[in-house]
Amino acid sequence: MHGETKFLSFMYNTPNNKWSRKHMLKYSFLIILLVACSTTKDSRKSTQEEIQFEATKRVFDNGLTAIIVENKKLPVFSYHTFYKVGGKFETPGITGASHFLEHMMFKGAKKYKMGEFDRLVEGNGGSNNAYTTNDLTVYYEDLPNAHLETMIDIEADRMENLTLDKAAFQSEKAVVLEERRMRYENSDRGKLYLSMMKEIFKGTAYGTSVIGKIEDLNSVTRDQIYAYFKKYYSPNNAVIVIAGDVDTDDTLDLLEDKFGDIKPFKALEKTKSDAIKLKGFKVKEKFGYDVKLKGQSPEPMFMLAYPSEKIGSREGFVLDILSSILGSGATSYLSERFVLGKNPAAVSISAANYTLQDAGVFFVMGQMLGKKNLKSFKRNLRRSVVKSCKDAITPRSIDKVKNQFLVSMFSGLDSNAGIAKFLGNREVYFDDYNFYKRELDIYQSITKKELQSACDKYLKPSRSVFLSIWSKHK
Amino acid sequence: MYKILIAIFIVSNFAFANFVETNVKEFKWGELDVVWVKDSKYPTYDIVVYFDDGALTENKSNLGVTEFMFNELTSGTNRYNQKQILSSLEFYGTSFSANVTHEFSTYSLSGLVKDLSPNLKMVCHLFNNATFPKSELKKSKRRAVAGLKSLVTNHQSLANRVFRELSLRGTPYSKPVSGTIETIKKLSSKKLSSRLEYFNQVKKKIYIRGPESVLDIKNMIVNDCSWTKNTGAQKRIVKEVKTKAIDTKSIYLVSVPKANQAQIRMGKVLTAKEATKDQVRLSFASKYLGGGFTSRLMQEVRVKKGLTYSIGAYASGQRNYGRSGISTFTKNQTLVETLNVIKATIDSNIKNIPDDLFNHSLRYIKGNYLLGMESTSDFMNTLLYLDHQGRPYSDIYDFTEEISTISTKSLSEKIKEIYDFKSQMVLVLGSSKLRAQLKKAGYKVKRISYKEFL
After folding, report:
1. Shortest CA gap A42–chain B (Å)
2. pLDDT at position B398, please?
3. A103: which residues sit within 8 A by CB, 6+ positions away?
4. A367 and A312, same structural domain?
5. What is the side-by-side strand order in the sheet with A360-368?
6. Fewer Cβ atoms within 10 Å of its own Cβ: the N or the C terminal residue of chain A?
7. CB-based contact (8 Å) between A420 and chain B?
8. Domain at B22-228, CATH homologous superfamily
9. Alpha carbons A136 and A148: distance in angstroms, whole number
10. Final residue of a domain: which of A256, A277, A298?
């Protein structure tokens, strides 16, 4: 993450913040909410009407996609650029390249030199930041609407003419390494998360960390990063979403004027396919082992992870619901058993289904209470998950999950940035910012039987890895 | 609504009056003060109950009792057990939480308007009938103690906790509102019940955000909740917080195992006058130094030197005290260099603030102030905070005008007053090996164990 105070970099990959996995997986969930409280078609309709967007989409000749959403409530706008590049495209030796570029994109281009980006955004009363995931890199700015043209000009400049200044390149390496120390090396939770992703996606394109290996960060050269930039930061690999007090036609004209002449990267699809081909996304089916990590935590922190499904697949949606039934809220199935029950064994426990573009991982995570035996805890947890397939999935638990997400959806759409993110993610993952309307039907049609069947199929002990980090591990 | 708000920023008190008249309504429901911020964007509501007391009135042996009391309201009543209470609230997707500071506390509830009635009914029932069953309390205490012990794996939080207590020592604000391992272990159902009884009599005010239909809760608030009874019966007596001499030649070193990064905290306590009477200049000083990517510290420490990923400065106050400080981290090898760069940056801006940087920062602060209130919930919380400090709502709209009157000289003076390196208490949390590095650089090092602060 480029910014200073919001420690949310590559947000879907950071286990320590609310936005991380939860938000990602709940993107596909948001519309569940629409069905959630609805028992009749009429009531669903009225909820749908609550979230109508005045959105317009245009794909320019060079492949750039733009979505404009008019929201006149405040004379400000939020500008999001989704580049369809993330950790999965990084080849050996350049792990962390997408995230490193996320930092370098603020370090000057041909027209707007070093420092100009931040000076213009903040100097006009705005703010900006960015995050990188395994699939995407997203840059965003919030500004008063008088500065829309300047913002479009700056974004076009850095897409076409990023300079990658040599001195800044070296200095920013140190910053990224500091970020890595903060998020992972000095955090047991961070170490556990990195290790979980590495185990589940071992040998696949998702098997490396988004922030990159230390040795790669130290050795990567400016030329390597520049070559990576030229491949992936092209108009045909980007989606721009602008939400706020703007005029749609004027904004599209401005975008065409500033971005229209930027050439697409014609070999984009082949380049992507070649990068992915090296490892692919095929996750192994057999796990059933444990990983012990040496940490500082006085009691074990744990993750129980299972390979799941990619975003957009029907079973992916089913597993989204299942994860919330199992581990979202104090009265979730696992919390009632391990935290609030008569003989509690954990300080906290939660579950999530992290759906990536090409694969997914379902996990349970938490921290054990003191004076509990790790071995028997692990056994009980695996058994409880199996048992949940029969006991946890009830009409009430399904309705509860839907209600919870309805509330969170509305709170997510309370700002221009929230709206831009909501629509941009759908455009990127489904080529359709309106996909939420189909999601609604999918979620509505998911049955208790499907949930039980997915639970039986995906949450088998033999498909799981149990990871723990503890000061007593060697 | 916000178009009007913008207009208010730009134009006049007349527009402010118009805005308040249209969108912010104040009522008396019985003895209870109510503020309603109209917001019909979505069918959702926020309700925040403000209590004019926090952890300050806790006995030394009961530290944490207030926060525990609020958090344990859902653990059982004379009619419902914990599972029934939580199931009822969570089923509707309702969010409920307490926030306890030293001076005041809030209990917040949000969800869908259509579910407001059953949600609020349950919450009122909790405030009237919570029994804090021993069995549930025992489990909660155990979890809280485990959580405190595991702070050693979260260096940022641990550094914040230790620094707060150290820098506020000798004032009533030094102890953490969440209590300590020792005091949490001593909490009992009786103590929590007694605390609830006290809070049911403390002066309160309710803030409501949502469409007009949310006002239908009036009867429930008046008839079913205990909040309209005896409001204002209690009055805290708070001694004025005085700043004390700080041993600025020493650095406190809190060692944690296996750290390859040092957390740095520095700052000072502000008196009530410093914290509340000159807030706009205080805010300008902190944001100029360490707010945003183009702030002075961010530019010098991160952008130019690559010494950290993040650095920020803050300065804020409650009603009777405040705190200012700087927070960052760096790898072990560059600890002293980072301290030196921070010091040099502060010194240079005490000496002189260039006009272009000053004007840039001014524009940034004005714009961000506006964007920070894009959410109506945030706007409502600002009103609550102003009420707590006894400041008029017009302060929001006067901000732009007032900040524009500040000169570079005046800003430099404020930076000297608040951030002069010589007046800062400095804490480093990290490897014990840092001691040698600090000593070599001429600092006197006082080693302390983090365990004393849990």
Report:
1. 15
2. 84
3. A2, A172, A175, A176
4. yes
5. A289-294, A465-470, A301-308, A360-368, A346-355
6. C
7. no
8. Metalloenzyme, LuxS/M16 peptidase-like (3.30.830.10)
9. 24
10. A277
Strands of the sheet containing A137-144, edge to edge, are A55-59, A65-70, A238-244, A76-83, A137-144, A127-132
Q: Which residues does chain B have within 8 Å of residue A214's beta carbon, measured at their own beta carbons?
A: none
Handedness of CA B171, B175, B177, B179 (dihedral sign): negative
pLDDT at B241 (0 to 100): 65
In sequence order, the 6+-apart residues with CB closer than 8 A to the CB of A227 are: none
The answer to whether position A238 is within a domain reads yes
A311 shares its domain with A185? no
**Cβ–Cβ contacts within 10 Å for residue B228, how many?**
17
Q: Are A201 and A354 in contact (CB under 8 A)?
A: no
Interchain proximity B306–A171, CB inside 8 Å: yes
**Do A140 and A258 lie in a common domain?**
yes
Q: How far is A270 from chain B (nearest CA, A)?
A: 35
Do A243 and A297 belong to one domain?
A: no
pLDDT of B15 reads: 45
Q: Which chain A positions have a beta carbon within 8 Å of B367's beta carbon?
A: 122, 124-126, 143-144
Q: Are residues A270 and A343 in the same domain?
A: no
pLDDT recorded at residue B240: 62
Q: Token pair for residue A389?
A: 């397939």
For residue A185, give how far its alpha carbon lies from the nearest alpha carbon of chain B (Å).
8
Q: Which of B374, B381, B454 to mutate to test the interface with A (most CBs of A within 10 A)?
A: B374
Q: Provide CATH 3.30.830.10 ranges for chain B.
A: 22-228, 250-453
Strands (E) across A215-296 are located at 238-244, 289-294
Residues A310, A327: Cα–Cα separation, whole Å: 20
Same domain, A237 and A294: no
Contact of A284 with A361, CB cutoff 8 Å = no
The tokens describing A370, both together, are 């003191």
Q: Residue A314's CB: how many other CB atoms inside 10 A? A: 13
Q: Give B-chain residues touching A404 at CB under 8 angstroms.
A: 90, 93
The fraction of chain B above a pLDDT of 70, given in percent, is 91
| Chain A nearest CA to B114, separation (Å) | 10
Please judge whether B293 and A400 are an interchain contact, meaning their C-beta atoms are less than 8 angstroms apart: no
A81 touches chain B (CB under 8 A): no
Which of helix, strand or coil describes residue B347?
Answer: helix
> Phi/psi of residue B24, each to 5°?
-115, 120
Total domains in the fold of chain A: 2
Inter-chain contact B152–A298, Cβ cutoff 8 Å?
yes
**Residue B275 near residue B268, CB atoms below 8 Å:** no
Segments forming the whole domain that contains residue A236: 11-18+54-277
Average pLDDT, chain A: 87
Q: Which of A50, A19, A28 is nearest to A315 (CA)?
A: A28
Has residue A48 been placed in a domain?
Answer: no
Q: What is the CATH number of domain B250-453?
A: 3.30.830.10
Shared domain for A375 and A255, answered yes or no, is no
Instruction: Find chain A residues with C-beta within 8 A of B42's C-beta.
Output: 50, 410, 413-414
Of A255, A277, A299, which one is at a domain's C-terminal end?
A: A277
CB pairs under 8 A between A and B: 205
What CATH number is attached to the domain comprising A349? 3.30.830.10
- The pLDDT tens digits of the residues spanning B340-377 come to 999 999 999 999 999 999 999 999 998 888 788 788 88
Residues contacting residue B96 through CB under 8 Å, at least 6 positions apart: B74, B89, B107, B108, B109, B110, B119, B123
Task: Please check whether residue A36 lies inside any domain of the structure.
Answer: no
pTM above 0.80, yes or no: yes
Contact B159, B263 (CB under 8 A): yes
pLDDT grade, residue B42 (50/70/90)?
confident
Q: Higher pLDDT residue, B453 or B7?
A: B453
Q: Are residues A252 and A294 in the same domain?
A: no
Say how many C-beta atoms besides its own lie within 10 A of residue A124's C-beta.
18
Q: Check residue A1 and give its pLDDT.
A: 57
